[in-house]
Amino acid sequence: MKKIAMLPTLLTLGNAVCGFASLAYASKIAADGPYNAQYFTWSAWFIVAAMLFDALDGYAARLSKTASEFGGQLDSLCDAISFGAAPAFLLLRLGLEWETPLMKQTVAAIAALYMVCALLRLARFNIENSPDPNSHKRFKGLPSPAAAGCVVSLALLRGEPLFRGDPEHYWIGLNMDLMHQVVNFWAPVGTLIVALLMVSRFSYPHLTQRLLRGRRRFSHVVQVVVIVFTLALFRELAVVLSFWVYALSAPLGYGLSRILRVQSDAPPILEERLPR
């Protein structure tokens, strides 16, 4: 290996740095810490920033025609930090409010399982896919950035919104205590679901390639602008809906198609004519 593509490599390393920063902020979260909400928010947004770097390095490699096996291996190592270890550790911080030792051990076990599934997902991706970014049109199993986004979205609801004024006005009058209880309950359950989806064989579309690749009509550009504006306006709530709808779309769609197939294959019920 004599030459390395500079821009894609730096973007990939930026992914790892953001993952490390997320771990650093999550480590500051204490059981009764006064700044827990801020630490949750910063830790979650650093993982979102890692997703941005992860998306940009592939496009930089494609535009500069420098996609290589080295870049693919480095990308997986950085993803293991940002989308494997960092979300798992963030889940441990979300589980600090569980009172019983059994529940805390359960959350720890789910966090470890999530990290293991993320590593298995990345290893399988390296074996089954070529380093060319153009070949990644669909994914087998939930991509690790999307799985991390599901965990991150819950941490954002648990945290403190950035650039806000009155928190009650920002959350449109939502009960903050009730929302925190829902997040504390759903975080381990939802993380277990997305961990299993990562190592599943459900097919997921490559959204960035579908939205941004090639020439599109003017209406498509308007739709992308509306989506970006909605994400910017309702940051935390939009992140929650986006990631969880994407993660659950494949299993729900598969289950619905199986139900419709069974109904279509069922023999018709003949009406019996009653004797007059």
The structure class reads mainly alpha
Q: Are there runs of 5+ residues with pLDDT below 50, and where? A: 165-170, 270-274
Strand order of the largest sheet: 1-2
Helix fraction bin: over 70%
Span between termini:
90 Å
Number of extended strands: 2
Give the biggest sheet: 2 strands, antiparallel
Specify the overall morphology.
globular
> Which band does the percent of strand residues land in?
under 5%
Question: Compute the gyration radius: what is it?
Answer: 21 Å
The overall average pLDDT, rounded, is 82
Helical stretch tally: 10
**Pattern of helices and strands:** HHHHEHHHEHHH
Q: In total, how many domains does the architecture comprise?
A: 1
What is the compact description of this entry?
The chain is mainly α. Helices cover 72% and strands 2% of the residues.
Describe the structure.
This protein has ten helices and two strands. By secondary structure, it is mostly helical. The protein has one domain. Strands 1-2 form a two-stranded antiparallel sheet. Helix 4 crosses helix 7, helix 5 runs antiparallel to helix 7 and helix 9 packs across helix 10. It is globular. It starts with 5 loop residues before the first helix and ends in an 11-residue tail after the last helix.
Sequence-ordered SSE layout with sheet pairings:
Blueprint: H1 6-26, H2 36-64, H3 69-94, H4 101-128, E1 138-140, H5 144-158, H6 167-170, H7 176-198, E2 203-205, H8 207-212, H9 218-233, H10 235-265
Antiparallel strand pairs: 1-2
